[in-house]
Write a structure and sequence with these properties.
Layout lengths: L1 H33 L21 E7 L9 E4 L2 E4 L9 E8 L4 E8 L6 H9 L6 E7 L8 H9 L13 E7 L8 E5 L16 E7 L5
Antiparallel strand pairs: 1-2, 1-9, 2-3, 4-5, 4-6, 6-7, 7-8
InterPro entries: FAM3 (IPR039220), ILEI/PANDER_dom (IPR039477), ILEI_FAM3C (IPR039475)
Keywords: Disulfide bond, Lectin, Secreted, Signal
GO molecular function: carbohydrate binding
């Protein structure tokens, strides 16, 4: 019974991921077909509905689905973390980006099940102030989560991290050490009555145009 329940779930999730990827590529192709001479900057990136204004960068973050399919992180029109790229895993999937240059300085999966809390905390503390931080949950992010870790995310602009509990879906984009409330954050609560993936809630995602530079 468990196997028959998991297989349809996996199939649905894979279809969702393929559809999202196709929608990104098709939107770009359609735009180029309408105006082949238009500069690439005129094409919405990361499957957004509009082109980002100057000094902003397109992003879209999608959480993992249950413990089957990992999250997807798109930044400036490029998928930088995904199940297909094999660079995501259970826990917190984080990309750290220099907003001024647009360079992805580092990306990592912080395993919140088997990882060492000291190593996880050290990784978070090394993120330089002002860096853009993109985060997507997969499976469960709370087993190794400490109050100090939650405080670091709060200082990045998260207002939901303190309420994230076991198996909640959570995505977030903020700026390290600035305490500026982020507009890019979403959470789906693990609730047996409302879960759509058995013991897990629905996927969540955020997308939009993030300010490129930071000034005090």
């Amino acid at each position: 019974l468990l196997l028959t329940a998991v297989l349809p779930l996996a199939a649905v999730i894979i279809v969702l991921l393929i559809t999202w990827g196709i929608s990104i590529n098709s939107s770009v192709a359609q735009e180029r077909e309408r105006n082949p001479l238009a500069p690439t900057t005129s094409v919405p990136k990361c499957s957004l509905s509009r082109v980002c204004p100057p000094n902003h960068i397109a992003l879209r973050i999608r959480s993992g689905a249950a413990d089957i399919v990992g999250p997807t992180v798109c930044f400036d029109g490029k998928i930088i973390m995904s199940h297909a790229l094999n660079n995501v895993g259970p826990g917190l999937n984080i990309a750290v980006i220099n907003g001024e240059t647009g360079v992805v300085e580092k990306s990592a999966c912080l395993n919140m099940k088997t990882g060492d809390p000291k190593d996880i905390l050290a990784h978070l503390k090394k993120i330089k102030r002002g860096m853009i931080v993109l985060v997507a949950s997969f499976d469960d992010v709370t087993q190794k989560m400490t109050n100090e870790m939650r405080e670091i995310f709060s200082e990045m602009g998260s207002t939901l991290i303190r309420s994230v509990k076991r198996r909640d879906s959570w995505v977030f984009a903020g700026r390290a050490g600035t305490k500026i409330k982020s507009l890019f954050e979403k959470q789906a609560v693990n609730d047996e009555k409302n879960n759509i993936y058995g013991g897990w809630p629905e996927m969540v995602e955020v997308g939009g145009c993030f300010p490129r530079a930071f000034s005090d």
